[in-house]
């Protein structure tokens, strides 16, 4: 004979005590298997007829409601919903540590987009826009790392300088073009710290390098575009609440060349011929209305020091994009007899570092600042050239 006990009304905290009492029953004398899980589900359970009486605690329905509420656990306090700006004010986000070990000062790097496959961060030949391109073996895809310290909090940030024209990766407040997300990213001059400062953060390992996100000083992330429409190749800085694979970049260090790139024989002959023509012309004059661009240049000392204010530099008008003709024109303006005895470095901004000029000038006709180094001087020997043909 079985006695049916209805455990309805048993509080869940007493289920463990009930199981301990049921475990003391002699199961050999039981006629049916004891269903312990049924107690937890508030169902009828079968017990032997000679089972000891179970003390099942029941809820006292006559207990005052105030007393029951006093013993009931309190719910957590309710906070009103805050806007993202207010959330950052009351609860500052804990950013991961910066991956500065992947960006040593003075190192050249490739940045491959994780969301666009074999596409690299590429400085456009126009000298203004930035996009993704599959042309890895190009100075336009190489970026030189420049460390700078924030004057407000003392934190070190990464500045990415193009190895082609010396212009810096800059995030603007201008909305990105149609089909792109976030704000426009361009090649800019280093005159203000806030526009060119980036903070790398490691997010994992990618194919052939470490994967990072680049957080701008304005808390926007550098991202590629064209996830669904591949013809959108521009670069933008998007908000941090939309982190996708388009915001991930695989970093690869570019080894330096043991020697600077040599000029081909045909280019060398053209350089010598251009130097003879430029020595007979007055190139140090600016003629308004003449097509071309203004070139501001200064001769640096052997240790690389020069006058920082470009207003104190010499200036002349130059028409064309050839780097060979520009070197000949600068040699003529400096009255330098040996045109091969100087090196040209481009500087973009008052606080920028000079970068050796190894390709033709950009298509835009803005003013260019040129720092002239003497061949064989300590400053010229210390220049680094990325080996863009490295595997």
From TrEMBL:
It comes from the Eukaryota. InterPro entries: Actin-crosslinking (IPR008999), DUF569 (IPR007679), Ubiq_DUF569-assoc (IPR054726). Pfam families: DUF569 (PF04601), Ubiq_DUF_assoc (PF22932). Residues 100-251, 292-373 form the DUF569 domain. Signal peptide: none annotated. This is DUF569 domain-containing protein. It comes from Digitaria exilis.
């Amino acid at each position: 004979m079985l006695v049916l006990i209805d455990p309805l009304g048993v509080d869940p905290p007493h289920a463990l005590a009930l199981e301990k009492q049921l475990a003391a029953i002699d199961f050999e004398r039981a006629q049916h298997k004891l269903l312990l899980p049924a107690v937890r589900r508030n169902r009828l359970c079968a017990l032997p007829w000679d089972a000891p009486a179970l003390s099942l605690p029941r809820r006292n329905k006559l207990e005052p409601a105030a007393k029951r509420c006093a013993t009931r656990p309190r719910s957590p306090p309710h906070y009103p919903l805050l806007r993202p700006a207010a959330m950052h004010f009351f609860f500052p986000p804990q950013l991961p540590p910066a991956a500065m070990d992947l960006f040593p000062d003075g190192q050249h790097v490739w940045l491959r987009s994780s969301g666009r496959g074999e596409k690299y961060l590429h400085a456009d030949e126009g000298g203004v826009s930035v996009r993704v391109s599959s042309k890895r073996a190009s100075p336009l895809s190489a970026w030189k790392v420049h460390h700078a310290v924030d004057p407000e909090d003392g934190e070190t940030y990464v500045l990415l300088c193009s190895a082609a024209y010396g212009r810096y990766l800059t995030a603007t407040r201008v909305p990105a073009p149609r089909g792109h997300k976030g704000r426009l990213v361009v090649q800019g001059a280093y005159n203000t710290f806030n526009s060119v400062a980036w903070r790398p953060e490691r997010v994992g390992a990618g194919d052939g390098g470490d994967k990072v996100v680049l957080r701008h000083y304005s808390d926007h992330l550098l991202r590629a575009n064209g996830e669904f429409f591949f013809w959108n190749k521009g670069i933008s800085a998007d908000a941090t609440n939309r982190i996708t694979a388009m915001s991930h970049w695989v970093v690869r260090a570019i080894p330096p060349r043991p020697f600077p790139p040599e000029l081909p024989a045909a280019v060398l002959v053209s350089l010598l011929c251009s130097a003879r023509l430029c020595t007979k012309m007055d190139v140090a004059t600016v003629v308004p209305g003449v097509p071309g661009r203004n070139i501001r240049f200064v001769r640096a000392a052997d240790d690389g020091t020069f006058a920082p204010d470009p207003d104190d530099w010499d200036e002349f008008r130059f028409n064309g994009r050839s780097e060979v003709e520009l070197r000949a024109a600068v040699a003529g303006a400096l009255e330098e007899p040996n045109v091969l005895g100087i090196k040209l470095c481009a500087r973009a901004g008052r606080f920028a570092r000079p970068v050796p000029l190894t390709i033709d000038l950009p298509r835009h006709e803005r003013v260019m600042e040129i720092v002239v180094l003497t061949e064989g001087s300590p400053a010229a020997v210390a220049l680094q050239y990325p080996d863009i043909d490295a595997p």
